[in-house]
Amino acid sequence: MREIYLDNCATTRVDKDAAELAAYVMQTVYGNPSSLHKKGIEAEAILTEARRRIAIALGCAPDNVYFTSGGTESNNLAIFGAASANKRTGNTIITTAWEHSSALNPVRELESRGFVVKAVSPEPSGHIDIDKLAALTDGDTVLVSCMMVNSELGSVADIERLVKLVKLRNSKTLVHCDAVQGFGKLSFSAERLGVDMLSVSGHKTYAPKGVGALYMKKTARVAPLFFGGGQEKLIRPGTEALPLIAAFGLAAEAARNNFSANLAHLTALFKHFVKNVALTENLCMNSPPDSTPYICNASLLGFRSETVLHYLAAKGIYVSSGSACGKGKPSYMLKAAGVSRARIDSALRISFSKHNTIDDVDAFFLALSQAQKEIVV
């Protein structure tokens, strides 16, 4: 049975070249980058090259890149670190009601510790009103955190505009962006956006799980979450996961080099998907028309998501009902966006990669048509 993987927001298949580089580093360049002998110097060169590659992909200097274990740690480091280091300048944190749990839960934890939290809900259009979000900024605001691409609907936020508006109201307020679903898929430069911090992850962009990075401006004051050696300039101590980091750098470079071709391919898949939604009984789109072509969210009304997921999986077609971190629970992101409970209970998230084809999309819709005939409601 041919497998059709359409859950690329949850994770992607690792690029062959990236996997081979990781194996090479594990077996050949296995020294500790902090060691002063030859093997350590060889390892440090691999680390430096990976940092350079990630920096080019992010549009920043290598000194602004700090390696982490993934998007969750990057978000936690940015949010807790900024709040801790700057608590004397303010006590208010501003965010949105549909951030990824790795950003939203740290904010909630800070609220339990005494911080004031203000969260803006998305508009009926499926977007965040950037003006409304920025308008909450005042002299007490220490941090504004907003995701670039919503991980369930694919909505894209104008982060550059957000930064400009926030800084006009309070130049000391730090702006953090969770760009996990945007990195390698949207064209942006961290420096051009003007953000103080920006989180990215490896396994969403054809690199292994367990590696990510945090972009930080040199002017951003962030307290570390961990304490140990002098790695990552004390911001993220601990021996670097060099094989994963090397693979991440290579995958990021490939995504940048093939950006235009990948985007054109994914746009064609997205358009084909949307066209078929209109032709499929009981199926309606939840994603806005201008969402990223990598994510399509649609509801098969009258059929529970979990039931349809299992039916599709039995045919070798893999999709999700929302963020993998949600573990199948009703989507708080869709609820925040004002999506009806009937649509939430029947929502499917289809997320594409460069490996998917038009035939994959057609197979999905054929299976969905069969599901409506065979599933007993």
Map the helices and strands:
Elements: E1 4-5, H1 16-27, H2 38-58, E2 65-68, H3 71-85, E3 92-96, H4 101-112, E4 116-120, H5 130-135, E5 141-147, H6 159-169, E6 174-178, H7 190-193, E7 197-201, E8 212-216, H8 242-257, H9 259-279, E9 283-285, E10 295-300, H10 305-314, E11 317-318, H11 332-336, H12 341-345, E12 347-351, H13 358-374
Parallel strand pairs: 1-11, 3-4, 3-5, 5-6, 6-7
Antiparallel strand pairs: 2-8, 7-8, 9-10, 10-12
Helix pairs in contact: 1-8, 2-8, 3-4, 9-13
Structure description:
The chain has helices spanning 16-27, 38-58, 71-85, 101-112, 130-135, 159-169, 190-193, 242-257, 259-279, 305-314, 332-336, 341-345, 358-374, and strands spanning 4-5, 65-68, 92-96, 116-120, 141-147, 174-178, 197-201, 212-216, 283-285, 295-300, 317-318, 347-351. Helices cover 41% and strands 14% of the residues. It is of the alpha/beta class. It has a seven-stranded mixed beta sheet with strand order 2-8-7-6-5-3-4, with helices on both faces. The protein is globular and about 65 Å long. The chain folds into two domains: 16-257, Aspartate Aminotransferase, domain 2 (3-Layer(aba) Sandwich); 259-374, Aspartate Aminotransferase, domain 1 (Alpha-Beta Complex), CATH 3.90.1150.10.
Brief descriptors of the model:
single chain, 377 residues, alpha/beta, Aspartate Aminotransferase, domain 2, Aspartate Aminotransferase, domain 1, 2 domains, 7-stranded mixed beta sheet, 3-stranded antiparallel beta sheet, 41% helix
CATH-derived topology of the largest domain = Aspartate Aminotransferase, domain 2
Strand content: 5-15%
Name the CATH class of the largest domain. Answer: Alpha Beta
**Widest beta sheet: strand line-up:** 2-8-7-6-5-3-4
The number of distinct structural domains comes to: 2
Q: Could you tell me the mean pLDDT?
A: 95
Count of DSSP strands: 12
Helix content: 40-55%
Give the radius of gyration: 21 Å
* Sheet with most strands: 7 strands, mixed
The CATH homologous superfamily of the largest domain is called Type I PLP-dependent aspartate aminotransferase-like (Major domain)
Structural class: alpha/beta
Contiguous helical run count: 13
Order of helices and strands: EHHEHEHEHEHEHEEHHEEHEHHEH
| Name of the CATH architecture of the largest domain | 3-Layer(aba) Sandwich
Please tell me what the overall shape is. Answer: globular
Q: Gap between N and C termini, in Å?
A: 26 Å
